[in-house]
From TrEMBL, chain A:
Domain of life the protein comes from: Eukaryota
Annotated protein name in UniProt: Vacuolar protein sorting-associated protein 35
InterPro entries: ARM-type_fold, Vps35, Vps35_C
Membrane topology: Peripheral membrane protein
GO cellular component, one term: late endosome
Function in brief: Plays a role in vesicular protein sorting.
Length: 790, 301
């Protein structure tokens, strides 16, 4: 049936066009013959085709345009009195004899335009008459087109300032009145279209209506084009009357479109000066009107205007644009109870954008906007609407983008309160955005208070906000988030150690609540950051006496100890172990023996109790050895205890090669290549011999289990250790011992000819080459090496 | 044969000329045959004068019992066609009985003739003025010649001419208020007015203003009424809503109207009405008829 309808419509259009062409043909003949009577008769017949009700606006427009073209020819004829011999006044009457109203009015408008041009009557009288007479067409579509025709033919004949039609009797006021009246009537007709037809075709009507909207909007455009519409006139007459019509029409589509039109066609300067009036209209619109879009448009225009030139900024201040917009939005939200939350928030977003662009220096405005938003949100619980959430994110991101410095945002008291209304996921996203913004701008957060605020903001990342199970989270995302938190911690810095300590305490307080999954990510940066502070204090220690909370390394280490403890209980022992060692080293540098010892103890305890995995053990033991080696604060007793422990653990590793390597590494514990370092050659040798034994045992085990002895790598490694200590002047390491070891390796390699792997081979030969090289170098070292034969 | 032809031919030519024929305005008058001929125009109280010439056909003489000219005002009802009722009859004797041998011209004059009624050509009735010249003959029958002329009487603009204003409606359905600027219009007048919609619950398609002429003839039980719609003038297209006011501007000049005639010699009346018709989408018609008076205003030109 619908298909049928379309087909029929095409047919009707074709018929209409044919009708117009047919009558136009006779009209042309009459025009050529200067026969007024026939010209009127056939033009009326032609225009009768426009009386159809069967076409959709689109098709009707087609028909209208054809008639329009013909009417231009008729107008030319009317203009030339010599051709028809009737005065324009008489002609004006004559066309009104037509029996049908629609052709009559089209002809009247056509003659009217000639009448104005002839200046035989004041333009305003003719215009007034025309616009009044057009009331007779109450059919919305036909009326709209007729009035559109009137508007078209009269456009260049309005008594505007500077126009030839302006005179004593005709003022720009008349032009404005005329256009306004035509606008009002057209809008009424347009609005009325809605109420026609049953519900099922309502939608179709809506579509058709929006096709016609430009006919209505054009009037506003004409108004804006009138030169004489200056600010005063606009303010006192044009705007109030247009708004009155907009409000009174009580139609959603029209109100939206027309408000938008007003905003688009009139200059920004006018909007600024009439802001109050304009804004007052918004709360009076229908609740379903998409006010937010329109208001956003307005604010965007205004902010563009503000951006266009700095000269206009005082104007904004003068008219208190911000407070007006702000209160208008408040009123709109208040009056439109049904407006979804997303609407109100997007309004705030627009306002915020406006503020940021126009008054970048007024943080209080920004805060005010956020505050208003909080107030709006406070009625609800968490947001659930996705679009609303998006808007809130936009709202929160805007200041971050505008102000390179996150610090600015931190001073906005309402900022976190807005964030509270986001759901957890979004909250996290927002937190990440904040962190990224900090990272991007490399901004440093330098006071404990700000840190407090900041962590309050990103608490979504810092701890589980509610009992949503963490399993749902994507591991990778989680890691990403936590990494960003970790990066953030490094951005917190203050030159003043006192303040820095406060910052650290604050951070600690927050991250400690993070739970087992987060601590491994967040504790290390905190520790390292703290250690950095320690290092800084190291240089200037002793100076800070008598202050209430002196930021001494000791104090910091206490804090650190607690922190790491938390981590070890998470459990993340390997990490805790590393951190303990880091701390120990730092304590070492600060000459705090008991502290360092304590850290080591903790590390060993961890090793014993928590590090079970053999691979982890290997890594751990090497770390311990490495750190311990560099320790110089320990007294003999403490050191002995620790080294003994370390060596003991080394020998107890599971795999022989691991044992071997750990043990020979332990040798360094007894030989610190410093001026006043420990130099216990005997124990070095003991370690190395032990390593050799283990290597041997490993070799044998390999030959038992696999039928062939394993590679000689371990031996070569030990040989290198020998060489190291030999060179360092350990008296216990003799050239003979090295010689013996070299021989041993050679024998091993020969016996193991079946299984020659290139790596140990290459290792060994390059070791030999090194010996060779040292021999040839001569000097002290050369002499030392001389006895060794390769 | 010749004799016979001669017997059926009028034996003389009679021509009637008005003394101011050259300057007097002439207007078209529709004859019974349907053709329009131009005839002189008079109004009441005018002198009607002129000459009548009688010219016998070559070589014939006319014996007569006298020549006279009559000025007749007649009303003819079509149901009684051919039967004229003379409401005015004036006679001038032009000649005493005798014989006419050659063309003879007689001047005549009716001075300040009272002609209260206008010439009228209606559906069922006709009012005409005619000059009738009779050459009376005893045996061969009288020779008669007619000359029609038209009478129009002008009225001054009425001293009281109220507007017509009325509120009408169908309860809970349609209420309108209409206004015509006058109740008396001259023939070239223009009707200005407006229709104000107070309540609209029906879907109106369009609205027309009709001019209707109501001609009633006869009297008493035999009264015959004929109504004609002379003009159908569309006022509005589409469905108005409450509060709309639609302008009326109807020029009367294109229509063939006559003044209102009330009870002309107890024979007939011609009245005019404005009929406001609203048509709804189901083609139902709602109308309200108002009488207006039409008069003939002296044309200034």
């Amino acid at each position: 049936m619908i298909l049928d309808g379309i087909g029929d419509e095409e047919k009707w259009l074709a018929e209409g066009i044919a009708g117009i062409q047919h009558h136009a043909f006779y009209m042309h003949r009459a025009l050529d013959a200067n026969n007024l009577r026939d010209a009127l008769k056939y033009s009326a017949l032609m225009l009768s085709e426009l009386r159809t009700s069967r076409l959709s606006p689109h098709k009707y427009y087609d028909l209208y345009m054809r008639a329009f073209d013909e009417l231009r020819k008729l107008e030319m004829f009317f203009k030339d009195e010599s051709r028809h011999g009737v005065s324009i006044v008489d002609l004006y009457e004559l066309v009104q004899h037509a029996g049908n109203i629609l052709p009559r009015l089209y002809l009247l408008c056509t003659v009217g335009s000639v009448y104005i041009k002839s200046k035989e009557a004041p333009a305003k009288d003719v215009l007034k008459d025309l616009v009044e007479m057009c009331r007779a067409i109450q059919h919305p579509m036909r009326g709209l087109f007729l009035r559109s025709y009137l508007s078209q033919v009269s456009r260049d004949k309005l008594p505007d300032i500077g126009s030839e039609y302006e005179g004593d009797a005709d003022t720009v006021m008349d032009a404005v009145d005329f256009v306004l009246q035509n606008f009002t009537e057209m809008n009424k007709l347009w609005v009325r279209m809605l109420y026609q037809g049953p519900g099922r075709v309502r939608e179709k009507h809506e579509k058709e209506r929006s096709e016609l909207r430009d006919l209505v909007g054009k009037n506003l455009h004409v108004l804006s084009q009138i030169e004489g519409v200056e600010l005063e006139l606009y303010k006192d007459t044009v705007l109030p009357r247009v708004l009155e019509q907009v409000i009174n029409c009580k139609d959603e589509l029209a109100q939206y479109y027309l408000m938008d039109c007003i905003i688009q066609v009139f200059p920004d300067e006018y909007h600024l000066q009439t802001l109050e009036t304009l804004l007052a209209a918004f709360p009076q619109l229908q609740p379903t009107v998409d006010i937010k879009t329109v208001l956003s448009q307005l604010m965007e225009r205004l902010s563009n205007y503000a951006a266009s030139s700095t000269d206009v900024l005082p104007e904004f201040l003068q008219v208190e644009a911000f407070s007006k917009l702000s209160s208008a939005i408040g009123r709109v939200i208040e009056s439109q109870i049904d407006m979804p939350i997303v609407g109100s928030i997007s309004l705030y977003v627009s306002l915020l954008t406006f503020t940021l662009r126009v008054h970048p220096d007024r943080l209080d405005y920004v805060d005010q906007v956020l505050g208003a938003c909080v107030k709006k949100l406070s009625g609800t619980t968490k947001l659930e609407d996705n679009r609303a959430i998006k808007q809130v994110v936009a709202l929160l991101s805007a200041p971050l983008e505008k102000y390179d410095d996150i610090v600015t945002a931190l001073t906005l008291s309402n900022y976190p309160r807005v964030m509270d209304h986001l759901d957890n996921g979004t909250n996290k996203v927002m937190a990440v955005v904040i962190i990224q913004s900090i990272m991007k701008n490399n901004s440093c957060i330098s006071t404990a208070d700000k840190v407090e605020v900041l962590f309050e903001l990103i608490k979504g990342l810092i701890k589980d906000l509610d009992c949503t199970s963490a399993d749902e989270l994507d591991e990778e995302d989680f890691g990403e988030e936590q990494n960003s938190v970790a990066r953030l911690i490094h951005m917190l810095y203050n030159d003043d150690p006192e303040e820095m300590l406060k910052i650290l305490c604050t951070v600690k307080k927050h991250i400690m609540s993070g739970g087992p999954k987060r601590l491994p990510f967040t504790v290390p940066p905190l520790i390292l950051s703290a250690l950095k502070l320690v290092r800084r204090l190291q240089g200037q220690d002793g100076e800070v006496v008598g202050e209430e909370m002196p930021a001494t390394p000791k104090k910091i280490f206490q804090i650190l100890n607690q922190t790491i403890e938390a981590l070890s209980s998470v459990p993340s022992p390997e990490l805790a172990l590393r951190l303990y060692l880091e701390c120990a080293e730092a304590a070492n540098d600060c000459d705090l023996e008991p502290v360092a010892y304590e850290f080591f103890t903790q590390a060993f305890v961890l090793y014993e109790e928590e590090v079970a995995d053999s691979k982890a053990q290997v890594t751990a033991i090497h770390l311990i050895i490495g750190t311990l080696q560099r320790m110089n604060v320990f007294g003999v007793e403490n050191r002995d205890t620790l080294t003994h422990k370390a060596t003991g653990y080394s020998a107890k590793l599971l795999k022989k090669p691991d044992q071997c390597r750990a043990v020979y590494a332990c040798s360094h514990l007894f030989w610190v290549d410093d001026q006043d370092g420990v130099k216990d050659g005997e124990r070095v040798l003991l370690c190395l011999k032990r390593a050799l034994r283990i290597a041997n045992a490993a070799q044998q085990m390999a030959s038992v289990t696999r039928g062939s002895s394993g590679p000689v790598t371990l031996f070569v490694e030990i040989l290198n250790k020998y060489l190291y200590f030999f060179e360092k002047g350990n008296p216990q390491i003799t050239s003979a011992a090295i010689q013996g070891l070299v021989e041993l390796i050679k024998t091993e390699m020969q016996s193991d000819s079946t299984n020659v792997s290139p790596a140990p081979d290459a290792f060994f030969s390059s070791t030999l080459r090194y010996i060779q090289f040292q021999k040839q170098k001569g000097g002290v070292m050369g002499e030392k090496y001389a006895p060794i034969k390769v | 044969m010749n004799y016979l032809i001669g017997a059926f031919k009028p034996s003389c030519n009679i021509s009637i000329t008005f003394s101011d024929a050259k300057t007097r305005k002439q207007v078209p008058l529709k004859k019974e045959s349907g053709q329009a001929v131009l005839v002189p125009l008079f109004q009441s109280q005018e002198n009607i004068s002129g000459k009548i010439s009688i010219e016998p056909i070559q070589g014939k003489k006319i014996e007569h019992n006298g020549v006279k000219v009559e000025l007749l005002g007649q009303i003819e009802m079509y149901f009684d066609r051919g039967n004229f009722y003379d409401f005015t009859s004036l006679v001038r004797e032009l000649d005493v009985p005798g014989e006419l041998y050659e063309k003879k011209t007689y001047p005549f004059e009716f001075s300040t003739v009272e002609m209260p009624y206008e010439t009228y050509n209606g559906v069922n009735v006709r009012l005409r003025y005619v000059l009738k010249v009779t050459v009376s003959r005893g045996y061969a029958g009288s020779i008669v010649e007619y000359q029609d002329f038209v009478v129009r009487n002008y009225s001054p603009p009425p001293s009281i001419n109220n507007s017509i204003k009325m509120e009408v409606g169908i309860e809970d359905c349609l209420h309108i208020e209409f206004e015509y600027n006058k109740s008396k219009y001259h023939l070239k007048d223009v009707i200005i007015g407006k229709i104000y919609f107070l309540l609209v619950r029906i879907k109106i398609k369009n609205m027309d203003l009709e001019i209707r002429r109501r001609e009633s003839t006869g009297s008493g039980p035999s009264t015959h009424v004929e109504t004609e719609t002379l003009a159908k003038f569309e006022l509005m297209d589409g469905a108005p809503v409450r509060g709309e006011s639609i302008p009326i501007r109807l020029f009367l000049s294109p229509y063939e109207l006559t003044p209102t005639h009330r009870n002309i010699n107890n024979k007939f009346s011609v009245k005019y009405y404005l009929n406001l018709v609203l048509v709804d989408e189901e083609d139902r018609r709602y109308f309200k008829q108002q009488e207006i008076t039409i008069y003939r205003l002296q044309e200034t030109s």
